[in-house]
Amino acid sequence: MSPSQDVVELILKDHRIAGDLLGQLRNGTETVRSHALHEFADLYVAHVSAEESEVYPELTRYEGIDQDVIERGVAAHEEGAEALLDLFDAHAGAPHAWDDRLDELVTAVTEYTRETEGTLLVDTRESVTRECRVRLGAAFAEERCRQLRARCGDIDNVRRYVSG
After folding, report:
1. What is the pLDDT of residues 104-114, one digit of tens each?
2. What is the torsional sign of CA 38, 41, 45, 47?
3. pTM (2 decimals)?
4. CB of 48 within 8 A of CB of 5?
5. Which of 40, 51, 58, 163 has a 20 to 30 A CA-CA distance from 80?
């Protein structure tokens, strides 16, 4: 079994990709920023949707997983989505607010990533069997892929997620 099938590894890979895209949003040209914004939005919504529908419900069944961390993860997903909406607004009509909105998004995503990687993923490695992590990885990847095919990062979808 390849490590890339493990849900922990898949989540970490998404975190790295998200970090790269945030760097492009900060340092890229206008064209690069526009492309990175849409890629980030698709990745973000696909990632959080897959976590919430396929991973978190399963993890709640394990004693070694802190349920408060899962709840904070869902709240952090919402906070990130709200910051993403604000960045979309800045991109569309308030370019002078871009840097401030981007800082909000980076902060939200960084805090979520730090806590997830420092607690939830460590606990998952320790408390969930490799076989289960691979099964969760397959479910996560399938849902993530389904979301990406549907272009889930469209601004209207992000709004639905936030109001959801």
Report:
1. 999 999 999 99
2. positive
3. 0.94
4. no
5. 58
